[in-house]
Each structure stands twice: as C-alpha cells, then as structure tokens.
Backbone:
C-alpha cells in the first residue's frame, strides 16, 4: 500500500465532514468504489414503494378528471419515471473508499460532500436488509464512530461486500497503527474492489473464533403476549377498527331501520362488548406472537475472538449489529409488570457510539434465568444481576410512601369536588380515600423493596421499579463522573440522589434516595481517582 | 476482594469535604441584578394582567396571588443571592474537578480530569459589568457537564489554562 494523500503516516486524521476536498492521489487499493450496481433496481423500487399510496390515489381519483395535465394515468407514469431517475442519481453520485487511516464517503450531485471516518474511531458496524434488499441480496451498512455524532450509511452494498467491509473495518481498528492492510485481515480489500458478485453465504468474522452467548429458543415464545409493546399495536389496530365500525353505523340514519336499530343495539350491546374483548385478546395473542417471530427470528448473540459482540436477528428484515466489546459498558435487565408475573425478563446492553440512544436490546422476553446468565456472560462477571441490593433505610421508605400518597390527595380532592358539584353520595370521598390510600401503601412498599444499589469488583448496580423492576449494571470504568443531588427534603433526612454519568446508554444511571454516607462510599469505591483529594 | 468490598461499604462514614473555593463576591451583586431584571419584567406583567386583563370578580383571589408573586421576586432579589453565595463552591485538583451549586436544593458534581472533553468559558454582558466569567467543563456524557459560575475573569482565565493543559495530557477518547 502506498502513502495515502501524501500525508505523513502518523499525522492525525482530519475530523468531521469536509467539503470539496480534492481527491488525494490513489493507489489500486485506495480507489473510489461505487455502491452495488443492483442499487439501480433498489432505489426505484423503494421510492415507488414509498410513493405507492399517493400513486394509486392519483391513478384512480385523478383519473376521473378529464383532459387535465395531472389526470391520473399520465401523472402516474411521470411519477414512476421520476422515481427511477431519482433512484439512479444516488448510485451515480455516491462513492466510497478506504485509505490507510480513513473511510471516506463522497456523495452529492451539486453539493459535493466528503464524509470521513478515522478507521481507529469505528465503534460499531451494523448491517440491515429489508425485504427488497434481501431479494436483491443487498445490505445497508451503517458505521458508528463518534460518541453522539451521526452515523455513516452506505445503502447498499452486496451482502458479501457488506459482510467483508464489516469484518475488515472491525479487524482493521484493532491494528490502526501498523498501517498495513495485508496483516490486518486475510479477506483484504482487493476482493472488495471488484466483487459485485455474491459468493454464497456472507463471510463471518474470518479466522476469529466465535463463542455463542445466546440463540433463540422457541419455547420463549410463550412470553411474547406478556409484552406491552404488542398491546399498543393491538390498541392502534383496534382504534382503526372502531372507526370503521363507526363508519358503518352511519346507516342508522336511514329512517326505515331507525326503530329496529335501537332495539337491535340494546340486545347486541352485551354481545358486542364480549366479542370486542375476545377480539382484542385474540388479536393481542396473534400480533404479539407474530411480531416476536418477525423480530427475533434466528437470533444469535456471539462474541468473536477479535473483541466484538455480534447480534443477528430478524425474519424479513435481517439486522446484524456488531459492536466493539470494550464499548459495551453495561447491561439493563428489565422485568415489565406483566412479564414479571410469569418470571420473564428482557436484556439490553449499554454501549457508546451505537446510535439509538446507546441501548441495544439483545434478548427478547425470555425466562429470567436466561437473561441473567446471558447478561453475566456479556458483563464477564458473575453476580451483578443476582446480587441482593443494599436497601436505603427507613427515610427512603418514608419518602416512597409520601410520594405514593400524593395520588391519594389528588383522588380525594377530585372526588370531593365531584361530590360537591354533582351531588354524589357523601361517603364517596371517604371510600376513595380508604381505597386509594391502601393501594398507595402497597405500591410504596413495592417500590421501596425494589429500590437499591450495589457494587461488585467491576460494576455498580442500581435497582428500581414498582410493579415492573429494572436493574442497571454499569462498568466502573465506564463511569465518567458523579452528580450528588439533594433536595431540601432529602437533605433533612440525609438522603441524596446519586447519578453516575456515563457515555453509554442513556448517559446516566440514577440511584434514588440513597443515604449520603452510602452514596459517598459507593462512588468513592467505584472511582477512587476522582475522590482521593476530596474526602 | 468481595468480602473486603462489603466491609468497606458497611463502615460507611466517608464524608465528602466541601470544595475549597468560594466564587467571586461580586457574584452576589450579579445574581441580584439578574433577578432584579427578571423581577421588573414579571412585576410589569403582573400589573398589566391584574389591572387590565382579568375581570373584577377574580380580584378576590388574584390579589393575594399577585402579592405573593411580587414578594417572591423580592425574596429572590434580597435573599437568594446571598444564600447561593454560601452554597456555591468549586475546586480543581490535578486529578479531578468538584463543584457545588444550588441553594434550596443542592447539587455536587465530580468528574476526573481524565474524562474531560472540552473546557468553555462564558461571559455575558451582565457578567462583564462585574468582571465575572463562568466555566463549563463537558465530559463524554450528556448528563455530566460541570459549571463553575461567576469566577473573577482573571481566576477563570487561569483555571481554563490549567484545565486545558492538564486535559490535553491525557490519552484516549475519554469515554
């Protein structure tokens, strides 16, 4: 490989997007490369897909107008041609290349723009193929570099090229200083340069040895209906259905059936409600199971010898997420209320530079033991998901109760006002008070029980939740700083809200109402260097 | 290690000392002037709303509310700046930065200098009247910027120079 861009080999790579850089002198390996030729087919199909609804509407509705320019069929034909044209332009104008130190992507027709990513800053490389992509055997590559900055997308390369690029980039960043592609990876770039042909299955992580951490087990499917995410889907579908039924009932305006309608409605109401409930339950079961299968088909979580974690999943849209393991700073195990009743849990990783808020869900709803054991193997430490957390004492418990009873105050005031204005029975506010207060006491006890913190040799833990329970585990070396927040009322009781700030995940892990001395010793033990001069 | 860890935690009587330095005394006047400006605006708004906007029948409960708001602004003007001055403290060592801020509710922030990414200083038009500057130190976490407000400009310049010198020495991308 020759010198890249005439720069001395050790000069720092330029950062951020650069505009109108003159193309540096290139060698055979450094040549600018196009995306796959199959994009010429991909983009029009995708953009027509996006335009499908307007086009169909234009075709049928516009077709009724006579002699106008925008009348249906012609407009549709023009639109399709435009879509094809707009599909080809990105392919013509996008080029990428890999130099000694950087990945460069050049795009734009009039506004030419060069994006550069230093190879040693590549944190994660994801592959994604939707249905159209898969028919054409293409993959979208998205490359995460900075901490929060946007990612570089290459949409799309052939599946083989994409897999090669992925393993090349990740292998390459292991040895950025050597500047030699030959030792970096056996697959090498020359094959990438002219391979617009698929050679069978996508290349794996090359010579590196893979350890499987998790694989989908279809007995987990029974947990699918206990995820509330699918309930939202059912509710949305139900909402549409309700509107549809509403449209039908416009018929009641026909005077001929008006009398009959009332009678029928009275009789049918009970049946309708029952049928509705059954429909929602069946719909929920079907949809949640279906979306579980679609999302988590063929799930594999592997750790390869070159220090990366790789997640592959999806039936129609396959998704491959690869992230450098040193950037995985912890995990979150969540047991949402419903899932907890059947001893299920979900698992996500907290990492830097992966986009999507830094949290990647790696396990679907599955048995809690599975989530725990996979979590431990991701963390490479036993116990941080099972260790009993230290509780925060009586003042924290009292604050849980006070917080919970605010709802009671609201309920009593609201029911009191309602009783006054609508002449409701006088015992109503009292009943609301007793019922609500009892419920709040139970909920407060639950949230106190789940509130806690802990520390192991490598991690700090935070637990919280009322009906659902969450445990966050953060690597000690991933802690960037500490925030100790004390409201007036916390200060009176010697409590604090301790926040560990981090670059991973949602950027902070919070421990509520922890007694100040415990907060101090936890923080000090986790990051001694920050505290040594302040105690 | 695990056993030792638990024991160390149970001893639990580690206390954090206060950061060493107060902010510049001119900060009291600056904070007071700032709340005077916002107080004047809110008094005008309260006066206009009370006299011209609301119907007469509302005055029964609007009058105490307006008085309370005006009094609150006076408290912010007279009491809060002094209170703040007692709470706000800061310290920078060779290894870490430590700040305390707030008045009614308080907040302490600590970050090791090895994790610092940028050091910004800021002086608004009002701050310039009192020769004050604020320093904000950001880390790779969006949740963790530390602000030392209202330092004397000379002190601020020196702190920024020191911080820049120390942080440029550390390697890595601070995540």
Residues:
């Amino acid at each position: 490989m020759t010198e890249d861009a005439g720069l001395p080999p050790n000069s720092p790579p330029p950062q951020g997007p650069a505009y109108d850089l003159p193309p540096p002198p290139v060698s055979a390996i450094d040549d600018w490369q196009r995306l796959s030729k199959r994009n010429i087919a991909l983009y029009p199909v995708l953009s027509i897909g996006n335009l499908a609804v307007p086009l169909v509407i234009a075709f049928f509705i516009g077709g009724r107008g006579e002699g106008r320019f925008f009348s249906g069929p012609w407009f549709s034909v023009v639109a399709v041609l435009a879509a094809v044209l707009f599909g080809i332009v990105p392919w013509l104008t996008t080029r990428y290349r890999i130099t000694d130190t950087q990945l460069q992507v050049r795009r734009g027709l009039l506004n030419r723009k060069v994006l550069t990513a230093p190879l040693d800053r590549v944190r994660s490389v994801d592959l994604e193929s939707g249905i159209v992509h898969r028919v054409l055997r293409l993959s979208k590559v998205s490359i995460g570099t900075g901490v929060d900055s946007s990612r570089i997308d290459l949409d799309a390369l052939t599946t083989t090229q994409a897999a090669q690029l992925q393993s090349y980039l990740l292998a390459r960043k292991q040895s950025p200083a050597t500047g030699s592609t030959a030792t970096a990876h056996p697959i090498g770039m020359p094959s990438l340069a002219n391979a617009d042909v698929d050679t069978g299955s996508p290349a794996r992580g090359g010579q590196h040895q893979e350890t499987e951490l998790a694989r989908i087990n279809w007995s987990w499917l029974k947990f699918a209906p206990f995820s509330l995410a699918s309930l939202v889907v059912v509710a949305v579908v139900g909402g549409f259905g309700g509107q549809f039924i509403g449209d039908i009932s416009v018929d009641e305006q026909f005077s001929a059936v008006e009398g009959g309608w009332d009678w029928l409605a009275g009789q049918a109401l009970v049946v309708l409600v029952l049928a509705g409930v059954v429909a929602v339950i069946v719909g929920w079961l079907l949809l949640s199971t279906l979306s579980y299968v679609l999302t988590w088909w063929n799930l594999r979580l592997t750790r390869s010898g070159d220090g990366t974690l790789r997640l592959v999943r999806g039936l129609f849209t396959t998704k491959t997420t690869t992230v450098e393991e040193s950037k995985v700073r912890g995990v979150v195990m969540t047991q949402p209320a419903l899932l907890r009743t059947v001893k299920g849990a979900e698992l996500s990783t907290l990492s830097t530079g992966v986009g999507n808020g830094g949290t990647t869900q790696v396990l679907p709803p599955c048995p809690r033991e599975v989530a725990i054991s996979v979590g431990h193997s991701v963390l490479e430490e036993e116990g941080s998901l099972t260790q009993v957390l230290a509780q925060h004492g009586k003042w924290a418990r009292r604050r849980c109760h006070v917080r919970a009873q605010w709802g009671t105050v609201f309920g009593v005031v609201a029911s009191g006002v309602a009783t006054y204005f609508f002449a409701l029975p006088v015992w109503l506010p009292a009943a609301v008070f007793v019922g609500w207060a009892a419920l709040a006491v139970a909920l407060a006890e639950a949230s106190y029980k789940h509130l806690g913190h802990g520390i192991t040799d490598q991690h700090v833990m935070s637990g919280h939740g009322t009906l659902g329970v969450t445990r966050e585990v953060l690597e000690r070396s991933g802690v960037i700083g500490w925030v100790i927040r004390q409201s007036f009322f916390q200060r009176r009781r010697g409590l604090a809200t301790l926040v560990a700030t981090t670059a991973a995940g949602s950027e902070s892990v919070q421990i509520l109402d922890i007694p100040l001395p415990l907060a101090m010793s936890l923080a000090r033990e986790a990051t001694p260097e920050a505290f040594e001069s302040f105690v | 290690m695990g056993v030792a860890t638990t024991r160390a935690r149970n001893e639990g009587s580690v206390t954090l000392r206060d950061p060493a330095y107060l902010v510049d005394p001119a900060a009291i006047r600056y904070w007071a002037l700032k709340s005077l400006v916002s107080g004047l605006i809110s008094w005008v708004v309260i006066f206009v709303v009370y006299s011209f906007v609301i119907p007469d029948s509302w005055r029964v409960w609007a009058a105490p509310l307006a008085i309370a708001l005006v009094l609150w602004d006076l408290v912010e003007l007279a009491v809060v700046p002094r209170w703040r001055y007692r709470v706000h403290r800061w310290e920078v060592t060779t290894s870490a930065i430590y700040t305390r801020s707030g008045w009614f509710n308080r907040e302490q922030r600590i970050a090791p200098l090895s994790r610092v990414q940028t050091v910004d200083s800021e002086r608004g038009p009002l701050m310039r009247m009192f020769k004050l500057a604020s320093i904000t130190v950001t880390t790779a976490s969006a949740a963790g910027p530390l602000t030392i407000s209202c330092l004397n400009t000379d002190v601020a310049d020196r702190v920024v120079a020191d911080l820049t010198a120390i942080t440029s020495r550390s390697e890595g991308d601070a995540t």
Q: What stands out?
A: Residues 26-53 of chain B form the longest helix (28 residues).
